Amino acid sequence: MPISKADALFSLIRTMSKSEKRSFTLYVKKIQGGEQETQFFQLFKIIEPMEAYREEEILQKLQPLNKSQLVNLRRHLYQHLCTSLRLVHLKKRIDTQIRELIDYAEILYGKSLYLQALQLLHKAKGMAKGHHLDLMHLEVLEFEKRIEFRHITRSMRGHTGNLTQETDSRASVIAKTIQLSNLALELQGQYIQKGQAHNEQDAELLRRRLHPTLPPLKHTAAQRTFFEKIYLYQAYFWYAFQMNDLGDCHYYINMSLHLFDRYPAMKKEDADMFMRLLHQDMSISFQKGDSKRLEKRLQTLSDFFEEFNPHFNPNSHQMGRLYLQLARLNQFIVSEQYEEALPLIKGTLRFIDLHQSTMDPHRVMVLYYKIAGIYIGSRQSHHAISYLTKIINNDGKHLRADIQVYSRILFLMAHFDLQNFDVMEFLCPQFERFFRKHGELNSLQISCFDFLKQIYKLPKEQMEGRFLIFQNSLKSLRADPFLNRSFAYLNTLYWVAKKLL
Questions:
Q1: pLDDT value at position 221?
Q2: DSSP letter for each residue of 283-349
Q3: CA 493 to CA 307: how far, in whole Å?
Q4: CA 487/CA 463 separation, integer angstroms
Q5: Chain segment 4-26, per-residue pLDDT in tens
Q6: Which of 339, 366, 336 is nearest to 351 (CA)?
Q7: Which sequence spans correspond to the domains of the chain?
Q8: pTM (predicted TM-score)
Q9: Higher per-residue confidence, 361 vs 376
């Protein structure tokens, strides 16, 4: 195993649960027997309690080991950790169980026990087919073909013809699945890079460029496999999302969720996809301001997480917790219950501290943004400043540019609340240069920034009149469906209304 970097080993040990560490200890005792404790286990015991990797301390405790020997020892430990983890999770993952059957079949085949190998492959094929694991299904078929081609097994009359037909069918399914998954990924990447359409002209350009790439939705739908349909619906979802057609977004997510209802075992087998679909549906509900639908989906996700969490791996557990945190914050934001949301902040920050090292940086910044928005909505803008500063000072490599724009506008709103007008005077030219560099802003972002860079300059007695004019312009913009997402992220109507009380 080529991995020997210290950070990779340290990260792996840090993510291991208590039960996984206990299993590794038992695994080591089993392989070393009654002999003296192995060096790689000594290294594990030294690294395990560390809060940060300290190589000098390790070398001191493992004298006379030198640095080049430590590299090899780290590699050795990493390999044993992976082997132990594989054994722990063997019965938890169906694909690992199928892989084990294929490995056993390889051993039996090497001993010329062809029929026994075929029996195991037949079992593996049934498991792969039943759980929609098309690539593994094809791998088993190719192994069967290899045995039948090289040896006359006479295992089943007509088996050869069935085998070739099944292989052709599965290869065709995989090719179509790959094509659809590529399309869904490309459309998602297009959104991450360009965002949603800002107006009808943008939407028309997207329609001309992207719609011809979409395969027919209903054509031969009954013949498509589970994952073909999932990726097809995801491709249509990302297309509709970029077009700002939130009704269609709900429709395609519903189609996917109904598919999981039809094959309920897949909720456990691919919990990540099921939770992601619920998250997408809740995100669309947030943009639409549909608090009832958001609450309904949140309950579904919460019930699912509670039932299946004991079977989750750390990644699924983290993903589920993240979606729950975002949805609970959004539920209060969309209902404009900012003060009621304050008790959630402590748990959200604890979640970030616990998982920040393995989380997508963009997700962390989104959580910070939600927290800042709640503080501003509850008239505690002094608490919002630090979280918005984290986003603004981020290098931006892992962030969509729009959250940087929203954060700067929210930052100015917070400073206005605190009457830090000198700070606003200093920041506005900087932010204007950033917005110019960012490119085209939508009409709500432009309207908000134009207002904020002027309002602090006015005498106090003129501010109310200017707020009323701004409120009317916001109400006019609110009718634009292309601004749904911006109004969800910048609830300026609520902020202005509080100023006019």
A1: 59
A2: HHHHHHT-HHHHHHHHHHHHHHHHHHGGG--HHHHHHHHHHHHHHHHHHHHHTT-HHHHHHHHHHHH
A3: 40
A4: 22
A5: 477 889 989 988 888 889 999 99
A6: 366
A7: 6-88, 94-155, 343-501
A8: 0.85
A9: 376
